[in-house]
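Hi R.,

Here's the chain you asked about this morning:
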Amino acid sequence: MTISVVIPTLDEAQGIVRAVESVIAPGVEVIVVDGGSRDGTCRLARDAGARVLEGVRGRARQLRLGGEESTGDAVLFLHADTRLASGWQEGVRQALADPRCAGGAFAFRFAERGFREWWIERGVALRVALFRLPYGDQALFVRRSVLEKMGGIPIVPMMEDLDLVAAIKRAGRLELLRLEATTSSRRYAEHGTLRTIGWHQWALLGWWLGWDREWMAERMGR
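And the predicted structure, written out as tokens:
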């Protein structure tokens, strides 16, 4: 089974090399879809071994383009500030060796260690355990057939990761790997922990209730 990794970027020079290097492996295609970076992200990604596509800014659009241009039997969507644990590709292949499995996600972990990070990690673990609802920062992966059946990543202003999770669940089993996706806690530091968590919960409620996402994104300043 071949795997394509799609990484959307916008001014991610600080971490893109680590992200790409964490997923480079035999039988793995790595595609970076850039949304107009001005900090050398594209050059760094190419030098690290990724194929770079220049697209329109917007995570959903970038993910969709990467999915359409990829060739793997499975597609994994990775945030630019996230790294996968060694052996991640074997974990994905083992999960998808079961025909009942349509896709999955990794365990969530912060690169930084502190009480704030520990507390948020526990909250994420509880959400995933109760609702089987991982977010995009847990490196979602999906069979190509499932991605094609849903028409690719939907072009929405936010919460496209939960649309993908819902499509995976409709198509089959969602596998939750014990292998970790290690991500940065920078957005919590930049915007405030309680404020960021509050916005996440509000956005999740809106997604569940089917609120207008353009209105939600405008309220959140996206």
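The domain at 3-219 is CATH 3.90.550.10 (Spore Coat Polysaccharide Biosynthesis Protein SpsA; Chain A).

Let me know if you need anything else.
M.
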